[in-house]
Amino acid sequence: MTRLSTHDAIIIGAGPAGTSVALTLARRGWAVAIVEKRLFPRRKVCGEYISASNLALLDRLEIGDAWRASAGPQIRRVGFFSGNTRVEAAMPPARAGRCADDGFGRALGRDVLDTLLLQAACSAGAEIFQPFWPVAIDRDGDMQTVRIQASNVSDEHTMLRAPVIVAAHGSWEPGPLPSQLAKTSRPSDLLGFKAHFIGSSLATDLMPLLVFPGGYGGMVFADHGRLSISCCIRRDVLARLRGNRLPEQDGPKENGHLSAADAVCRHLMSSCRGVSDVLEGARLDGPWLAAGPIRPGIRACYERDIFRVGNAAGESHPIIAEGISMALQSGWLLASELGGAPTGQAGREAAGRRYEATWRGLFSTRVYAAAGIARLAFCPGGPALMRVAVRNLPQALTLGAHLSGKTRRVPGFG
Ligand SMILES: Cc1cc2nc3c(=O)[nH]c(=O)nc-3n(C[C@H](O)[C@H](O)[C@H](O)COP(=O)(O)OP(=O)(O)OC[C@H]3O[C@@H](n4cnc5c(N)ncnc54)[C@H](O)[C@@H]3O)c2cc1C
């Protein structure tokens, strides 16, 4: 059985990028459909920190107050934990927004944030198809049709038609859509891990960067006293850690090897003194999550008649914790271009070109800056060099936060 439904725009994926574009278009009176394959609330591999530069945008999306009420403490210091080194420096404040307290970023669990954004999109009139995923996109004159289904075995399909298709499905999962990236499996691939802990002793206003052999990560307090700890680790390093288990090591095992999450956790604790110190006496809240490989880089923002936002358009190494900002802001930028564009193919193409130019102007520097820092963290002797540099010049951490876009205003917000 097939159902047919026509909209002005179909958004694939309900992360911050998809809901930002959907909310903005729906508030402008567009008929919007969102297709999301997972049920919410769901947890996600992410450090969950959001820079203060997004607060005016969250207010415009009308979730600013809910975000302020739920998010964790203000992050006023940036840190660096590697080996036995622990260095701290001031987080540069963003220009204060509507409230005097708006100058510093905070973290909010993705189970909470993404649900908040999706509920707001639904209230604004977006039609939500969840859990559904697209199996094919076809051109149909000036329209495109997206065939979606609720499960792999179901022969019930829904056909969605719209002139505008937005890929907001992230970049970590391969699939049949032209906007999805091909699967990779290279030793240098970076796999993402994340967990929440309760009862940790990290200072509540500090967000340390973690640098350890084969990877990097971060820690920050999110909502409800949850410490969010996340990291990326090379595939080959993880394989070695799992295989090289010492006989006396206990822990969950898969096929005689240490589980990936257990290997990552032990590696973090043994290679970053700061991690083992703050996690002493803390308890895991829910399981470790894994995702990836991540796909840092800049991609086309508009290709084969599909617009891309968030990670689908481009991704910085999470070493700078700016992916949610880029997702929210790119969704807003695209919706602003589309909202004012004439209808028809020529209007969409012109909007696509303008959106891509603004995207590159706003985000390219942070993508390249993050790639440079990540390259240093991975090169032989890199972590040791970073330790010496940061110990001698802690202000480098403040400068790094500036360069990563944490204080940069979104165009159109004064
Ligand atoms: C270890 C780690 C730590 C990080 N820490 C931070 C941080 O502290 N701060 C920060 O700003 N960024 C951080 N990031 C980056 C951030 O998580 C991403 O950049 C951000 O989630 C991108 O948002 P998005 O909306 O583009 O995609 P996503 O958040 O990935 O959302 C995509 C959505 O699409 C859905 N989807 C996927 N495929 C399909 C499909 N075929 N059909 C339908 N739905 C689909 C998914 O279920 C998901 O809900 C981190 C990343 C990693 C790996």
Automatic annotation (TrEMBL):
<dbReference type="InterPro" id="IPR050407">
    <property type="entry name" value="Geranylgeranyl_reductase"/>
</dbReference>
<dbReference type="Pfam" id="PF01494">
    <property type="entry name" value="FAD_binding_3"/>
</dbReference>
<dbReference type="InterPro" id="IPR036188">
    <property type="entry name" value="FAD/NAD-bd_sf"/>
</dbReference>
<dbReference type="InterPro" id="IPR002938">
    <property type="entry name" value="FAD-bd"/>
</dbReference>
<protein>
    <submittedName>
        <fullName>NAD(P)/FAD-dependent oxidoreductase</fullName>
    </submittedName>
</protein>
<feature type="domain" description="FAD-binding">
    <location>
        <begin position="8"/>
        <end position="172"/>
    </location>
</feature>
